[in-house]
Amino acid sequence: MRANSFDVLGNIAILKFPEKTKKSEKIKSAHKILELHKSVETILEKSEKVHGRLRTIKTNYLTGKRTKIAVYKENGCVFKFDVEKAYFSPRLSNERKEIASQVKKNENVLVMFAGVAPYPIVIAKLAKPKSVYSLEINRIASEYAKENVNLNRVWNVEVAQGDVKKIIPKFVNEKLYFDRIVMPRPQLKDTFLEQAFKVIKKGGIINYYGFSKAQEEILKSIESEARRAKKKIHILHIKKAGDIAPFKYRFRVDFKVIN
């Protein structure tokens, strides 16, 4: 029985199997992946779903080198991280490039839920904006973000560690406002738009990610939050940015905050 799916993170491939798959079948699939992907040196099995605000996973070793430290390259950038302790999705590579293509050189950008800083670093590398703030609650991910900033030599990226709801008031006190806020949110009930609206400049852009069966639900949620914050917005673009379950999708909504 083959793996349901797998992600290649540079030197590490993470496989997902149907329940009750025999260990011998898992090992057989693992060896096949090693043969097909010459850059892969380690095969792990994803044993638990992504869970919690830190978006961590558990894995089991299958074959190859015994490591959980990935070195992954995309969009001319390199990222180092522990696959169990820091969330990373290679499937958002094109999204990161697409967002970077929107960013202008004079922009001050905030990326919430930034993880090990793939969005901030790709934006900094490709768009060369004035500044990019990488905000992440996971301490370990933030430490990797700092290391990745150095690896990629993007000195206009500032790494801030902490809870969005606690850090944003500090930004307000410091009068730190942004031309663009990128929100690659985890699957949480809170939209965190209340916090984003507090630090977005007049005329600024928010790139918001939400999860739903239909885009109408996402739009209603954004419009409701805007009314609550007494903000006028204009929807620029909405697109499917991947499916996460049967009939459930990740949507990205790009919108301008008029006032």
Oligomer: single chain
Structural class, by secondary structure, is: alpha/beta
- Number of beta strands: 13
What's the Cα radius of gyration?
19 Å
Largest sheet: 7 strands, mixed
Kindly report the spatial arrangement of strands forming the biggest sheet. 9-8-7-10-11-13-12
CATH superfamily of the largest domain: Vaccinia Virus protein VP39
**Low-pLDDT runs:** none
Q: What gap, in angstroms, lies between the N and C termini?
A: 56 Å
Helix content: 25-40%
Give the gist of this structure.
With 259 residues, this protein is an alpha/beta fold. The protein is built from seven helices and 13 strands. The chain folds into two domains: 5-67, GMP Synthetase, Chain A, domain 3; 89-257, Vaccinia Virus protein VP39 (Rossmann fold, 3-Layer(aba) Sandwich), CATH 3.40.50.150.
